[in-house]
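Issue 218. Parser rejects a valid record. Input:
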Amino acid sequence: MHDPLVVAFEIRRPWPQRSPLPSAGHASTRWRIRLHHDCGTWCANDPPHREGAFPWWRPSSYSAFSRLNGRDYYWPPLVIVWHREPGGRDSLSVCGKRVQRSDGTWKFSRGWRWHTHHWRIQLPPVQHLRRRLLTRCAWCNGRSVKGDAVNHSHSWNGPRARWWKGEKGLFHRDCSSIKSAHSTCVCEKPCLEYGNYGRCTLCSRFRPFGLTDANLARIRNLHLIPQGERRASVKETWDD
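Output the parser choked on:
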C-alpha cells in the first residue's frame, strides 16, 4: 500500500486513561510498565539480540499500554511528528538510507527522523476538540461524542478543510455501515458488470466481489433504514 507518511516521533501525555485493550503480559500480571522481549519463532530471522527488558533510559523502551495494580491503561499522544516523503513517494523510499550491519543484515538509518523540512505535526487533543465542536456525521449530521466518535472515512484521501471548519466525509461507525449498504446493489436478480460482482445496470449500485448470502441479508436490513437516519440496534445487527 502506498503511503508517504511514517511516524518519526511521539510525545505522550503524562496522565493515562483506562484502556479497553489488555497490555502485554499474562493476565495474572499486576504491574507491567516497561517493554520486555520474549524470543520466539517470530524473531528467528532477526540479528542476534538479548532477551529481557529493554534499556530503561530510552523512551522507546516504554509501551503506551501498561498494567498498574491489575488495571490496563493507555497513554495517548499529545504530539505526533510525521515524516512525509518528498514528492508524495512511498515512505522511506527516498530519505530512508539502508545501512549494513556487521553480520551482513540491513537496517534503515535513523537520520530521516531529523528531516525537519519534511515534518508534519499532528496534535491529537486539538484534533479531537475540533472534531467534537465542528465535525458532523456525513450521514446523520450528528455530533462526535465520547463513545460515538465521527471518525470513519470511505476514502483514502478525503477532502481537507480549514482548521476552523469541520472535517468532511466522516461518519459514525454504524452510519458508515448504513451509508455503505445504501451504496451496495441489493437487487434480487441483479445484472452485474462482471457476472457475480461489479456495477449493476438495474440500480447503478456496486456489488463487491465474494459477497455472501449472510452479508447480503445484513446489507438489505441496513438498506431499509431511511436516508439520514440511524438506529440504536444497528451496531448489534451489523456485528452479529
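Fixed in the parser; the record now loads. The mean pLDDT is 85.
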